[in-house]
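Running this now, will post back.
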Amino acid sequence: MARCTAPVRGHSTASGRAACPACSSRYSGYGSYSNSPPSYSPSYSSSGSSGGRSGGGGASSGPRPRWSRPSSSVIYTLTEVRALTPIRESVEERASLDLRDVFLCHAWDDRQGAAQELHDLLESLGVKVWFSQKDVSLGLPLMRAIDKGLAQSRVGIVLVTPALLRRLPAEGIADKELSALLAGERLVPIVHNTTYEALREVSPLLASRGGLSTAEDTMANVAAKLAELVAL
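Update: finished.
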C-alpha cells in the first residue's frame, strides 16, 4: 500500500500533493487541499509554457501568471499563482518608489550558506536584494539597519530553514523582521530543508502564507520565480 509522504515532504503546494503516491489520486485538481493558501482570482493563461518543468516533479505545463513574460520557460502551479498574486499587486502598487526589489530575511546561521546562495542567484538575475551580509555597515546598529532595509524594499522573502525554526521561538531579530513583513501582503516564505508542517508548529501565521519550496523545485528555479515576481 502506498505511503503518504506528507510527514517528510509536506503537501503545502500542489506539485507536492501530486507527487505523493498515496494522495495524488485524491487531489486531481490544484487548489483543492484544505490547507492550501487563501483562494485568489489571479489573471493567468492556462496554456502553460513550451519549456520544460522548472524543477521537481509534476506536470510539464501549468498556468502562466500575468506578470510572467511570454518568452519565459518558468512553470508555476495554480497554487503558486494564487499565493503570489497579492504579492505582485503590492509590487505594482509600489512601482513608482525608489526601492530595493527584495528584503531577504534569514537566520543568522544561514548567512554564509543557503541565504548567501539565494542572494547570489537573485542578484545574478538582476534583482536588487537587501542582505545583512553586505548592507549592514560597520558600527551601524543592526535593528536600525533592518528597519531601514524593510522600509526601502518592495517585497520580503523569508528563508525558512531548520535554523530559522530554532531561532523564532527565542523572539530574536528574525522574529521582529517577520512581524513587520506579516503586517501586509509583502511576504513570500521560501521553505528549504524543512516542511510547512514543521513551520506550522512554530509559526502558524507564517505557515498560512503560500510560498515556494526547494523540496519541489531547485533553488535556482525558486530564484527565477522571485525575479519574475518583482520585475517591473
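The chain has eleven helices and seven strands. More later if anyone needs it.
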